[in-house]
Each structure stands twice: as structure tokens, then as C-alpha cells.
């Protein structure tokens, strides 16, 4: 496709994607959910609202993607073609996709989480539209450099992986992790004991997290950069996380098609935020390695399909793709299921720059002190 044809195609997308008013549709359970047009809306934001000043436009799409978009395929069909098993419910449907029975029941916990997130985000957006969130975000302190904090911590600790210490009250697989839960106290204890960055769960329904926790920790004087750990499916969430003090966000390749990841990375960069792009499988890693501008890849040892945790997943993927990761100067974070100094040493030897750890710290009485237990030594500040 020639440049002029591409520009025309993008202009056509822009002209058809003016924000639409949400309407209600009945769900299988008889509840009311809000129907949204996530894809058209996501594309509409940068193309149709230049007042946000993002400068995003035609150049971010390659011609193949525009052709795909224009071919009329549903986003679920595009996602499925990329190996993504999670379907979006609120996305525009294509007549060939079928409706009803098979789309009414989530096929996995992750799909349920994403469907719940679609409803949550559309409700939050109705209460606080993007331009308002962007305005308040501009008044928030600028994001801090998440990746630089990881690099500095690793250098301080003779190459031991930097720690991203997680704050979550509960998880779908483990249920309630602590009886007493004071997020600011935990954040301060993590920082005092050498964590480079913190990961704050903001999903309420499945992790008992909140944006209030994120904001309170940011305002508490904790200096570690903060990852907003949520299920991002919409650009609005990135702005919202920014407005609540996040320095970084998580993008999950098992949920987001390539075009969304590219677009969201671009938005992150324009806001000065960092994206941790999470993969679990080789196919997801290969997709992400083809995307320019990825600085941080998280290898999740937990399958979000089966919830099985296996730390050798980090090793296996790095054995296969370590060379290209090194060539691209990407830092790798090993996520989930790390409990002992041997676990940390194992993923360190596999080549990771950082580890993301929740459960093994949070289930101990003093999560701060638990850091030395996890690494087999005190981390230097
Ligand atoms: O942890 C879960 O049960 C879970 C369920 C569904 C989606 C994501 C889930 N966890 C997210 C994570 O990957 C972890 O919070 C993170 O990597 C820390 O893992 P851990 O040290 O094992 O708590």
C-alpha cells in the first residue's frame, strides 16, 4: 500500500470512529453490561482528539495492519490469528463470528477478568472521561524512570536481579494473602529492605486492590517507582494510572493483540511512562520481540490459562530467545512463583535483570524482612 493510500485509509478510520454513546445489552446472567467500542474508541482517541497533544497518527500503523483493519475482520478474529485465546466481549462483532451461547460464558478465569474489566472501564470512563483524566494527570508529579531504577539496583547488588516487590491483598489462585494489610506500611518496608520498584495491584474484583492504594503509596514519600498492576485493555486506563501516580504499567500479550501493544507503548512513551510487556509462551515472546520500542519484558512463570507455575519457563524462553533479547538490549523480569534464594539464583543464571515477587513476601509476617530471606542476603540500598 502506498503512503498516500495508507494516509487515506487512516483518515477513513478516523472519520468512522467518532466516539459513540454507550448502550446497554443483556448478559447471559441477566445483569446489564455496558457495550463499548474498545477498538474504534482506542483508535479514535489519538486520531480524533488532537487536543490531547499526543501526536500519534498514521505513521504508527503499518500497511498490513490497516489492511487487516479495513478487511472487516473482528478484533477477536485478529487476536485469535495471533494465538490469543482471550476474547473481548465489548469489541465490535463481525457477522461471521456468531453471537450467543459460546460468547456468553467465559472460557477461562483470565477471560472472565477481562470481561469484568471491560465493564469496569466503561463505567469508570462514563464517570471520568479521558480529557478530564488527562487534565488531572498533567497536574500529577511526572513519572519516574522504572527501568533505570532496576538497572541501578542490579548494579548496587553485584548483578543480583533487581526486585519488583508486589503489593496485593489477594489473588484468584491463592485467595486472601494476609489478614492485616496496610499497603503503605508494606511499601515502606519493601523500600527499606532494598526493593528497586513496587508493583501495586489495582484490580478490585479479583485481587482486592485499588487505585486508592496506588495513589496513597505514591503520596506517602516512597521513592521506588510504581508499576500499576492491572489488566490494561484501553488507553483510558494508562491515563488513569498516570493520574494516580503510576510510573509504569503492565501490558499482557495473552490479552492484547500486537496493534494494541504498539499503540499502548507509544502512549506510554509519550507520557514518560514505562511498559512491562508480559509473556508466558514462546509465541507471545516472538510477537513481542517483533515490536519496536519494548524495553522491559516480563516472563510470567504462571500460565494465565491453567495457573500452573513453573520457574523453568523463564529459563526455557531465555535459552530459546536470549540472543535476540540481548541484541535488542531488552531487560527481562522473571515473574511469579519465586520463593527461595535458589529460585532467584536459578532465574539470575538464566539471564534475568529483575524478579517480580508477591506471594512469598506477602505471606510472611514482615514482608520487608522477608526480602533478605528470599535473596539469601540483605539487598543494598
Ligand atoms: O496470581 C494469580 O492468581 C493471578 C491470576 C490471574 C491473573 C494473574 C494472576 N497473577 C498475576 C501475577 O502474575 C502475579 O501477581 C505476580 O507475577 C507475582 O506472582 P507471585 O510472586 O507468585 O505472587
UniProtKB/TrEMBL annotation:
Its EC number is 4.1.1.48. One of its GO terms (biological process) is L-tryptophan biosynthetic process. It comes from the Eukaryota. One of its GO terms (molecular function) is indole-3-glycerol-phosphate synthase activity. Coiled coil: none annotated. Residues 110-372 form the Indole-3-glycerol phosphate synthase domain. It is an enzyme of class 4 (lyase). It catalyses: 1-(2-carboxyphenylamino)-1-deoxy-D-ribulose 5-phosphate + H(+) = (1S,2R)-1-C-(indol-3-yl)glycerol 3-phosphate + CO2 + H2O. Pathway: Amino-acid biosynthesis; L-tryptophan biosynthesis; L-tryptophan from chorismate: step 4/5. The keyword Zinc-finger does not apply. Keywords: Amino-acid biosynthesis, Aromatic amino acid biosynthesis, Decarboxylase, Lyase, Tryptophan biosynthesis. PANTHER family: INDOLE-3-GLYCEROL-PHOSPHATE SYNTHASE, TRYPTOPHAN BIOSYNTHESIS PROTEIN. HAMAP family: IGPS_B. This is indole-3-glycerol-phosphate synthase. It comes from Panicum virgatum.
Amino acid at each position: 500500500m502506498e503512503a498516500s493510500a495508507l494516509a487515506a485509509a487512516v483518515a477513513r478510520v478516523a472519520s468512522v470512529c467518532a466516539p459513540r454513546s454507550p448502550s446497554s445489552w443483556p448478559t447471559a446472567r441477566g445483569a446489564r453490561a455496558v457495550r463499548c467500542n474498545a477498538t474504534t474508541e482506542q483508535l479514535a482517541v489519538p486520531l480524533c482528539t488532537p487536543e490531547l497533544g499526543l501526536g500519534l497518527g498514521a505513521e504508527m500503523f503499518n500497511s498490513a495492519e490497516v489492511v487487516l483493519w479495513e478487511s472487516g475482520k473482528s478484533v477477536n478474529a485478529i487476536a485469535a490469528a495471533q494465538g490469543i485465546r482471550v476474547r473481548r466481549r465489548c469489541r465490535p462483532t463481525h457477522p461471521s463470528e456468531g453471537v450467543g451461547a459460546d460468547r456468553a460464558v467465559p472460557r477461562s478465569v483470565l477471560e472472565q477478568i477481562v470481561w469484568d474489566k471491560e465493564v469496569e472501564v466503561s463505567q469508570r470512563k462514563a464517570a471520568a472521561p479521558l480529557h478530564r483524566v488527562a487534565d488531572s494527570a498533567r497536574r500529577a508529579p511526572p513519572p519516574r524512570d522504572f527501568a533505570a531504577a532496576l538497572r541501578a539496583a542490579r548494579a548496587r547488588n553485584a548483578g543480583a536481579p533487581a526486585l519488583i516487590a508486589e503489593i496485593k491483598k489477594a489473588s484468584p489462585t491463592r485467595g486472601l494473602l494476609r489478614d492485616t494489610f496496610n499497603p503503605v506500611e508494606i511499601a515502606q518496608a519493601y523500600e527499606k529492605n532494598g526493593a528497586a520498584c513496587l508493583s501495586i495491584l489495582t484490580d478490585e474484583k479479583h485481587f482486592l486492590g485499588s487505585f486508592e492504594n496506588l495513589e496513597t503509596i505514591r503520596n506517602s514519600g516512597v521513592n521506588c517507582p510504581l508499576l500499576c498492576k492491572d489488566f490494561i485493555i484501553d488507553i483510558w486506563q494508562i491515563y488513569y494510572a498516570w493520574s494516580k501516580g503510576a510510573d509504569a504499567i503492565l501490558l499482557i500479550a495473552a490479552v492484547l493483540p500486537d496493534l494494541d501493544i504498539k499503540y499502548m507503548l507509544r502512549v506510554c512513551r509519550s507520557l514518560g511512562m514505562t511498559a512491562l510487556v508480559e509473556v508466558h509462551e514462546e509465541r507471545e515472546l516472538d510477537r513481542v520481540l517483533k515490536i519496536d520500542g519494548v524495553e522491559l519484558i516480563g516472563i510470567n512463570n504462571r500460565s494465565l490459562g491453567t495457573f500452573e507455575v513453573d520457574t523453568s519457563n523463564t529459563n526455557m524462553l531465555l535459552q530459546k530467545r536470549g540472543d535476540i533479547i540481548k541484541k535488542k538490549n531488552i531487560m527481562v523480569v522473571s515473574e511469579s512463583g519465586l520463593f527461595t534464594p535458589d529460585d532467584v539464583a536459578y532465574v539470575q543464571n538464566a539471564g534475568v535483570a529483575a524478579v517480580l515477587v508477591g506471594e512469598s513476601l506477602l505471606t510472611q509476617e514482615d514482608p520487608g524482612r522477608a526480602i533478605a530471606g528470599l535473596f539469601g542476603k540483605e539487598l543494598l540500598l
